[in-house]
Amino acid sequence: MNELFSGFLEAGRLIISLDGDLAEITLRSLHVTLTAVAIASAIGLPAGGWLAVTRFRWRRHVIAVVNALMGLPPVVVGLIVYILFSRAGPFGVLGLLFTPTAMIVAQIIIVTPLVISISHQAIRELWAEYHDLLISMNASKRQRIATLIYDGRRALLTASLAGFGRAIGEVGAIMIVGGNIDHATRVLTTAIALETSKGNFSLALGLGFILIGLAVAVNVAIHNLLRTERASLW
Amino acid sequence: MVDTIFPLVLRGACVRRRGTTLVGPIDLELGACASTAIIGPNGAGKTSLLRLMHGLERCDGGTVDWSSPAAVARKRQAFVFQTPIIMRRTVLECIAYPLAIRGMGKKRSRELAEEWGERVGLKSMLRNPAGALSGGEKQKLALARALTTAPDVLFLDEPCANLDGRATKEIEKILSDACSEGTRIVMATHDMGQARRISEEVLFLYKGRLHESGRTNNFFAAPSTAEAAAFLRGDILL
């Protein structure tokens, strides 16, 4: 219990003292996670919509595979991205290993299946409701998907926020491809892992509480921006 | 430019589901008459026939042909469902939606939507979420949405089911105005009074087959089939 209390105190001290290193790794965490989630949403939301409105031979298998990929082990993703971006790998020439870009790529791979799967589920239900109307109005497939994404935007927010939740707390993959380099690729989760391994439990816990607070703050901010729960009939 | 998509000709048209024939085979020609009511007992196939004509139901046998190419004919039709499908948007956005997907500019489509919203009596609610409307208002919204594109034909599946007399009267007024502006009405209904008031022609369906068709006055005065006569008497048709 003392450790927990010390952690709270440490978190308070770091925030009140406006610790420069803390601000840097917090901003980097946000940068990496929000970029990855934005790209994953740009890919995943239309893909989920397309899966919901399109019938093709292997559709059920594709959905099953996407659902299975939600449980993709981050460490394995990190390892694969590491190999791809290492000097001997096919993308080694880009020199992206141990950079925030490589961390973003790893997080996109982890988050995209989650966004596709949840958005597919949400859009499928809306599609069942809108099907006759959109067919009757002769909407093209692109228009159907756009309509379903727009009208299902509040449900789809859940998909993106679930992706954010997974990405902000992710440590395995970004540790491997980022390397946890101070002032370069260190983020909150890798800093927590480092401080824990050094035995600085109070600092690690303090960073942990800040991470939780950050996740909650981003969720609340997005809900407020999109006015969720204020127009429940939509 | 094609002037009209009529006549609509059905030749041996059928709708089947899991081996059961829901409608057909039906031979029918819908010409330039202003309004048609499709009547019959529950399960007669009224909704399936409407959906077949509109293209929402696959034709499992025979043919359904408009005088113009299918792609052209499709764009000049609209459908109002028994339970209105209400989008998660404002009333104005819902009415403007079909115009938007036809590529009309946002400003013009909103102007037209406002005009139609006013015509159907939803002017004060245009900025409200469509989901908050009452049943009658939702049906008016669905009508306005369907009529904004000035369709050649409007299919309606029991548009006044579950509505009170006042809402029914308002909707019938909208329909007769649309009729007088050149939109052909094809409506499935259980309401014999409504069929008399609105339609010029009646199609009587029973067990998926077209048992009788003709001018509304003639049909109600002297039905020519035993089933139609029994239906009009109020007998229970099994």
Q: If you had to describe this structure to a student in words, what would you say it looks like?
A:
- The complex is a heterodimer of chains A (234) and B (238).
- Chain A is an all-alpha fold.
- Chain A has a single domain, classed as MetI-like (MetI-like fold, Orthogonal Bundle).
- Chain A is built from ten helices and no strands.
- Chain A has helices at 2-16, 20-53, 59-69, 74-85, 100-136, 141-151, 153-168, 172-178, 188-198, 201-225.
- In chain A, α1 packs across α10 (201-225), α4 crosses α5 and α5 (100-136) crosses α6 (141-151).
- The longest helix of chain A has 37 residues, at 100-136.
- Chain A is globular and about 65 Å long.
- The mean pLDDT of chain A is 89.
- Chain B has 238 residues and is an alpha/beta fold.
- Chain B has two domains: 1-76 and 151-238, Rossmann fold, CATH 3.40.50; 82-150.
- Helices cover 38% and strands 24% of the residues of chain B.
- Chain B is built from nine helices and nine strands.
- A six-stranded mixed beta sheet of chain B has the order 5-6-7-3-8-9, with helices on both faces. In chain B, strands 2-1-4 form a three-stranded antiparallel beta sheet, with helices on one face.
- In chain B, α3 (91-101) runs parallel beside α5 (135-147) and α5 (135-147) packs parallel to α6.
- Chain B is globular, with a radius of gyration of 18 Å.
- The model of chain B has no long low-confidence stretch (mean pLDDT 88).
- The interface between A and B is medium-sized, with 17 and 18 residues.
